[in-house]
Every structure is written in C-alpha cells, then in structure tokens.
Design goal:
Layout (H helix, E strand, L loop, with lengths): L11 H28 L2 E4 L2 E4 L3 H7 L2 H35 L3 H13 L2 H11 L6 H8 L14 H26 L3 H9 L4 H29 L3 H6 L13 H11 L3 H32 L1
Antiparallel strand pairs: 1-2
Helix pairs in contact: 2-12, 3-7, 3-9, 3-11, 4-7, 7-9, 9-12, 11-12
Keywords: Cell membrane, Membrane, Transmembrane, Transmembrane helix, Transport
Subcellular location: Cell membrane
Pfam families: BPD_transp_1
Length: 295
C-alpha cells in the first residue's frame, strides 16, 4: 500500500485550531457589517424597526450636515495624511542616519501612540486655549497676536488638522524606521564608494526601497483619517467644534445613533462612508501600482 503524501494545506485539524478565531471574527466583524447594512433599510427605534427601503439613504444624502461632515472628513484626510507622512519620513531619516542612540528616540516617539488619545486631547486643549494656552504664549512672545484655536468656527478644522498630524507621527515613524533597517547596508557602501552624496543616496536607494512601506502607511492612514472621531471628541470636549464646525462623518454617525436615537439614519451614513473609503482606497492602490511600474 502507498502511504498518502502529507499535504500541509487544508488539513482538518487546522480548521479546528482556527475555529475560535473564526467565531470571534464572524461574531464581532462580519455579523455587525451585515447587521448594519440591514438596519440601514429600516426606520424606528432599535426595539421597533420597520422596513423603510432607501428612505434613510435619501435623507442622509440630502442632509447638509452630512455633506459638511464628509467635506470636513475629506479635508482632514487629504491634509493630515500627506503632511504627517512627509514629516515622519524626514524625522525617521534623520534618526536613522544622524542619531546615535536610536532606541531612546524610538521610545520617545512611540510613547504618544500607546497613550490614550483622550489624555493627549486634554493636554492639547490646554496648549490651544485662547486665554492661557502655551501656543498663544509662544506667539505673543514672538510678537504675534493670540489666536482663538478652539472657539472660532474658521479655526476648528485647522486645529483638528494640527492635532491629527501630531497624533499620526508616532506610528509612521516607527514603521518607517523598521523599513529603513530592512535596506541592505551594502547598497549604501557601494553608493558612497562611487561618490554619491546624501540626496542621491536617499532619492535613488532609500526612497525606492521604502515604496512598499509608504504604500502600506498611505492605505492605513487614509482609512484611519476617514474614520476620525476620537481626536474630535478629545480636542473639543465631546463636541464637534463650536457650532459643529468640525463635524466629521463618524461623529455624524455617533450623533444620529446615540444622541438623536435614529439608528437607521446612522447605519445608512455608515454604509455610505464605507463605500467612500472603499472607493478611495481602490483608486489609491491603482495609482500606486502605476507609479510602482513606472519606477
């Protein structure tokens, strides 16, 4: 008799070990997704829902508050992501090339990532305070007038963007430093042997090698930026800015679900936001693939 060859793929025992994880994924990820989709076609309270067709979608898309929330979210995402990524790349490069005690600085930059956003938001509320904030103190010291960062409709998004850039730096820097370490040191030795300067080394060796890492960070940051909520809540004390000037899409969903008690409207907005993120991520990946082929 011929003994059956061992096949490491699709082993029944493997599914047995994966079963607990699959149950958790289905229960807490897949089921809520389909439940949200079903609720978006219903109206009424959570305990008394009735089928409403596409009425919720019509109301959401015709709501000027939701349109404003989408605009604010897009402004936040397309401003914070490139600025934070460029700053992170510059800081990571300086740490990697110029700093001796890299581990110490990595720990310092990683601390904000593991710190509660609410706690950081409280500190930033002090920094941005119009009367006694540190930022206005520095502006006055340099001869500039104070700025009403938190209680000015025209400044709410600017303040949120500054806060968003700062909170994004830690994760980006750590990931970019990991990417820099994966570059073969021989590339740099050969480049220096042939007289390449720092910019040539960065533009022709470092940056091309970091393209996969940057692609990953762009995707993660864009998705995270479109789901911004905690920063808004923390920075403006549980409100979306003065006169709701910093309302974002997720804050709109929170307000409709928990404050207004209209889960159908909230879930319709959730589905629309999901489709927007999916579309933008798809376009971004297509563009990055084209750039990668040209490179």
């Amino acid at each position: 008799m011929f003994k059956k060859a061992y096949d490491p793929e699709n082993q029944p025992k493997a599914w047995f070990f994966l079963l607990p994880s699959l149950v958790i994924i289905v229960l807490f990820s897949i089921y809520p997704l389909f439940r949200s989709l079903a609720m978006s076609f219903q109206k009424g309270s959570l305990i008394n829902q009735q089928f409403a067709g596409i009425e919720n979608y019509q109301r959401v898309l015709s709501d000027p508050v939701f349109i404003k929330a989408l605009r604010n979210t897009a402004l936040f995402a397309f401003t914070v992501v490139p600025i934070s990524l460029l700053l992170s790349l510059g800081i990571a490069w300086v740490i990697f090339e110029k700093v001796k005690h890299k581990t110490f600085f990595e720990t310092i930059f990683f601390m904000p990532y593991v710190t509660s956003t609410i706690a950081i938001g409280i500190v930033f509320r002090y920094f941005f305070n119009g009367s006694y904030g540190l930022i206005n103190y520095l502006l006055n010291f340099l001869g500039f007038e104070s700025i009403n960062w938190l209680d000015n409709v025209s400044m709410s998004m600017t303040t949120l963007i500054i806060f968003g850039v700062w909170t994004s730096l830690a994760f980006n820097i750590i990931i970019l430093l990991a990417g820099l370490r994966n570059i073969d040191e021989e590339h740099y030795k050969i480049a220096r042997m042939f007289g390449a300067d720092a910019w040539e080394i960065f533009s022709r060796i470092t940056f091309p090698q970091l393209i996969p890492t940057i692609t990953f960070l762009l995707t993660v940051n864009i998705i995270g930026a479109f789901k911004v909520y905690t920063q808004v809540y923390a920075l403006f004390g549980g409100q979306p800015g003065i006169a709701k000037s910093a309302t974002t899409a997720v804050f709109y969903i929170y307000d409709k679900f928990h404050i207004a008690g209209r889960p159908g409207i909230a879930m319709a907005a959730t589905v629309i936001l999901f489709l927007v993120i999916l579309l933008i991520t798809f376009i971004q990946n297509k563009l990055l693939k084209k750039v990668g082929r040209r490179g």
